[in-house]
Design brief:
The protein is 10% helix and 52% strand. The chain has 2 helices and 15 strands. The strands form 2 sheets. The chain has a 13-stranded antiparallel β-sheet, with no helix packed on it. It has a two-stranded antiparallel sheet with strand order 7-8. A hairpin with a 3-residue loop joins strand 3 and strand 4.
């Protein structure tokens, strides 16, 4: 149930447009994607690329997205992204704990920004760092009040307003609770035949919580691989990155069937 049009007048430029009439068979009612549209334009040069995207859902305001990247040298890549949009049913958390949660039918327009840099070593390993500002999240006081209300509601459950408070906290909270994040990634060469390793570190600059993740995969033979994922967080139960788990370890086997 989608009509799409792609046009490339030049090798370096392209335009893409799409119209979504509905989600097809078995969609929900009302259908969130009914009568939606998207327009995207990109330009690519030898060392640079830029693009813009406009998207509109019938019941929501216009989304505006921008991206750009620049290859500074064989080793350095710089990139950035920005998005201006609203969110439906956004949970507001007043800094004053005596005030209740408030759910906005549609949030005010806010803008998110991301800045990134990647360095590739001569052995093929890469080091990437990103900073993101997320305006739909909570500042430090609002985030602290969010967890305080949720804990108070859980302790009072099922009396009073505990059920609607817990329901709001779990259902309508923004995708990210904080506003500023730092992300670091080190990765071995993906072309190595024996496997690869990736180490990721996330620091929430709003509540000072941290998450360290490590993933490694080892190829025993062309049909069998072993992998492991480990996660370690810090910041306490009333922080975003530690609210669900403090430690996790996953071990597995991949088998390529003939």
């Amino acid at each position: 149930d989608t009509l799409r049009l792609a046009w490339s007048p030049l090798v370096s430029a392209s335009v893409y447009a799409a119209r979504v009439f509905d989600s097809g068979y078995g969609h929900t009612n009302p259908d969130p994607w009914s009568n939606s549209w998207l327009v995207k334009a990109d330009w690519r040069g030898d060392d640079s690329a830029v693009g813009i995207a406009l998207a509109k859902q019938e019941q929501q305001s216009l989304f505006i997205g921008l991206h750009a990247q620049r290859t500074v040298s064989d080793a350095w890549l710089l990139y950035s992204e920005a998005g201006s949009y609203t969110l439906p049913n956004l949970l507001l958390s007043p800094a004053d704990v005596s005030q209740p949660f408030v759910v906005e039918a549609e949030s005010s327009r806010r803008t998110d920004e991301l800045l990134g840099a990647a360095y590739t070593f001569e052995n093929g390993q890469t080091l990437t760092t990103e900073y993101m500002h997320y305006e739909h999240g909570y500042n430090a006081a609002e985030g602290s009040a969010y967890f305080t209300r949720a804990i108070n509601a859980a302790n009072a459950f099922p009396a009073g307003n505990s059920i609607p408070d817990l329901s709001s906290a779990l259902t309508y909270a923004p995708p990210l609770l904080g506003q500023d994040y730092l992300y670091l990634v080190w990765q071995t060469n993906l072309m190595e035949s024996t496997g690869y390793t990736r180490v990721m570190f996330t620091h929430n600059l709003t509540d000072s919580s941290n998450e360290l993740d490590g993933y490694s995969e080892y190829s025993v033979n062309p049909h069998l691989s072993l992998f492991g994922l480990a996660t370690l967080t810090s910041g306490g139960a009333q922080s975003e990155l530690s609210r669900l788990q403090e430690q996790m370890l996953t071990l597995g086997v991949k088998v390529a069937l003939p």
